[in-house]
Amino acid sequence: MKLPSPALVVSLIALAVALGGTGYAITQLPRNSVGTAQIKKNAVTGAKVRPRTLDASKFRKGTLLRGPAGAQGPQGERGERGAQGASGTPSPLATTDALTMPATGAAPGAARTAATFGPVTIRLRCFDRGGATGIAIEAISSQSGPIITWPEGTSTGATLVADVAQQPAGYIYGPTGSEAGAANMRIGIALPDGRAATTTGIIGWNSLGAGCWLFLA
User: Fold this and answer.
1) Is the separation of the CB atoms in 172 and 144 below 8 Å?
2) Which of 73, 146, 147, 150 could pair covalently with 190 via S-S, beta carbons 3.0-4.6 A apart?
3) Cβ proximity of 144 and 120 under 8 Å
4) Rg (CA), the chain
5) What would the mean pLDDT of 115-140 be, rounded to a whole number?
6) Alpha-carbon distances of 110 from 105, 117, 141, rounded to whole Å
7) Which helix (H) or strand (E) holds 20?
8) Residue 2: left if φ>0, alpha if ψ -120 to 50, beta else—which one?
9) More confident position, 211 or 161
10) Is residue 82 part of a domain?
11) How many domains are contained in the chain?
12) Which of 10-24, 132-146, 202-216 has the lowest mean pLDDT?
């Protein structure tokens, strides 16, 4: 039998080494040698992922179902007090000081202007009722159409007629003597052009050094 030539022996040895190296690379990969570049797209399926090893950040938004709401947590501590807000706009009917006047003559007595809003003027009247002070408040407009709402008026108010003074029903106070008194009141005015104003105030008599007085806020 003829022996193989040296060249053939070297070739066989080289082939064996090459085949052995390839087998090693396939069956015994070094630790941490496989990365993103070595993994084909969609090669890792759900069955190949260890349970409870992925959190929500690993999933595309909207792919996870929302679980039930958890129990309400304990109430937090009270926050710090906020800064004081800006002052509100004063009513156009507000008076800077109390309007005072003496009781003059019999009813309806003298009148003094307390506030003006558009064509509407609010006036205070103070008069003598035979040893007692009479006091009244009224509205008068230079144009017809404004609506006035008094403390004891209807919720819809009353429509003013040009140059005709109107007083709230029953809103004349007539003490039996010189005792002092006061009462709260509220006035609302709505103009035909859509503007409106409201005010609250106090009307009083035989005090503040005057027969009658009115203050609107």
Assistant:
1) no
2) 147
3) no
4) 48
5) 88
6) 8, 21, 18
7) helix 6-27
8) beta
9) 161
10) no
11) 1
12) 10-24
| Burial class of residue 18 (count of CB atoms within 10 Å of its CB; 0-12, 13-18, 19+) | exposed
b/e for 79-91, b at 16 or more Cβ within 10 A?
eeeeeeeeeeeeb
In a domain, 12, yes or no: no
> What domain range includes position 116?
99-216
Q: pLDDT digits over 8-56, tens only?
A: 655 666 666 555 554 444 556 677 766 677 777 777 776 777 777 777 7
Question: pLDDT tens digit string along 50-86?
Answer: 777 777 777 777 777 777 888 888 988 888 888 888 8
Taking residue 52's Cβ as centre, other Cβ atoms within 10 Å add up to 6
pLDDT one-digit tens code per residue, 182-193: 888 888 999 999
Distance (Å) of CA 33 to CA 9, 40, 137: 35, 15, 97
158 pLDDT more than 60: yes
Q: Give the pair of three-digit tokens for residue 204.
A: 């009083």
Give the containing element (helix H, strand E) for 10: helix 6-27
